[in-house]
Specification:
There is one protein chain. The chain is built from three helices and three strands, in the order αααβββ. By secondary structure, it is of the alpha+beta class. The protein has a three-stranded antiparallel sheet, with helices on one face. Strand 2 (77-82) and strand 3 form a beta hairpin.
């Protein structure tokens, strides 16, 4: 799995960027470690994983971010990530995973 993420800032031990990879892998019916080029896009070619993780990380003062949403295309899926940690994956036909 080609993903460069600083795991030191993740409070739950799992990063949002890894959750995106896991959700797409589940939609594809494969293990997340199999979601690698050349068969699949690399997440960092689509969006900066560290920026994605930072965007939804708890603020320095310890407060959660009140709102936020990022949408992007990855491996043929529409991906929506929200500030509460939800990762929604839908294929181009609109089927939700």
């Amino acid at each position: 799995m080609l993903l460069s993420v600083d795991q030191s800032d993740t409070s739950a031990g799992q990063s949002i960027s890894f959750d995106v990879i896991a959700a797409v892998a589940e939609a594809e019916g494969i293990d997340p470690v199999e979601l690698e080029p050349p068969e699949y896009d690399a997440l960092y070619d689509v969006i900066n994983p560290e920026a994605l993780d930072s965007l939804f990380a708890t603020r320095e003062n310890g407060k959660e971010r009140p709102t936020g949403r990022v949408e992007f295309h990855f491996c043929g899926y529409d991906v929506v990530v929200t500030n509460d940690g939800d990762v929604d994956v839908s294929d181009r036909d609109g089927d939700r995973e």
